[in-house]
Design brief:
Layout lengths: L2 H17 L4 H20 L1 H7 L6 H12 L5 H11 L6 H22 L3 H17 L1 H8 L5 H12 L5 H13 L4 H15 L3 E7 L5 H15 L3 E7 L7 E5 L2 E4 L2 H12 L1
Parallel strand pairs: 1-2
Antiparallel strand pairs: 1-3, 3-4
Helix pairs in contact: 1-5, 1-6, 2-6, 4-5, 6-11, 7-11, 9-10, 10-11
Length: about 270
């Protein structure tokens, strides 16, 4: 984002923080309603352009949002939406992307309020791995020829009763707008959940399943390195032969047997 949109996004997030007071139902409702608003904006180009038009006064943009969505969304969601559209955005896309982010944060806040954010974060990570390991499923979820409703129906058939309802809502919204790597989107959601808990995520590929003690030791070691609490997500990859590969952001720590063999070959070459 350019500077103007970064400032606008920051103010919109402040409005969200102010709005999400009270029970977890407020956060859950706000998240669902923000996703519904985004769906309308995705379908109506003229409306989303008008709501981000800097040549129109901020009050007029807020009034337009209230006329279109008033009575259809809660007071909390209205407050977030009108604050967002009243800001000056560098690009229309930045407004919509921020509303998506605020919707996701709202649902994750609801999960935290219910004491279920750990479960939601883990389920989102595991969904990413399931999609990554099933090319047919990934293609179906990313298919531009399928409607969002088709993709939602597929997810509900696969996941209803097996994951948290908030996980399912987040997954539905993600695949409904995604036209690329769905597994990456699930990883982004999992990382967002961790960041809201003031943690960083370590994506670990291991040759064999790690014991609880090994996970704890690895998390403690990484916490000493990065000076932040670390959430460890593990994916089994037998091709590594032994050991683990850890990715945190752009950092990669390769302690696998394959990695050691590659480094040995390089040193001998």
């Amino acid at each position: 984002m350019y500077a103007a949109s970064r400032e606008a996004s920051s103010r919109a997030r402040e409005a969200l923080s102010a709005a999400l007071t009270g029970s977890d139902s407020v956060a859950a409702t706000t998240g669902s309603e923000l996703f519904a608003v985004v769906a309308v904006l995705d379908d109506q180009r003229s409306l989303r352009v008008a709501l981000a038009d800097k040549s129109v006064s901020s009050s007029a943009r807020a009034e337009l949002a209230e006329r279109v969505f008033g009575g259809k969304i809660s007071a909390a969601t209205t407050a977030v939406l009108t604050t967002a559209v009243a800001q000056d955005w560098s690009r229309t896309r930045d407004l919509v992307d921020t509303l998506v982010l605020l919707g996701r944060e709202s649902l994750l806040r609801a999960a935290a309020d219910r004491g279920r954010i750990d479960a939601v974060e883990d389920e989102l990570f595991r969904l990413g791995r399931i999609v990554e390991d099933n090319p047919d499923l990934e293609q179906a979820l990313a298919d531009r020829g399928k409607t969002a409703a088709d993709k939602h129906a597929l997810l509900r058939r696969l996941l209803t009763g097996k994951v948290e309802e908030l996980t399912l809502q987040l997954a539905e919204q993600a695949v409904g707008r995604s036209h690329g790597d769905v597994g990456v989107v699930f990883d982004e959601l999992s990382d967002l959940a961790a960041s809201l808990r003031k943690q960083i995520v370590a994506h670990v590929r291991a040759a064999t399943e790690l014991t609880p003690q090994q996970r704890e030791h690895l998390a403690a070691s990484l916490q000493r390195i990065y000076d932040k609490p670390v959430t460890v997500h593990v994916q089994i990859d037998p091709t590594l032969l032994a050991g683990v590969v850890v990715r945190i952001g752009d950092d990669v720590i390769d302690g696998s047997a394959v990695g050691r063999l590659q480094r040995l070959r390089q040193s001998l070459g």
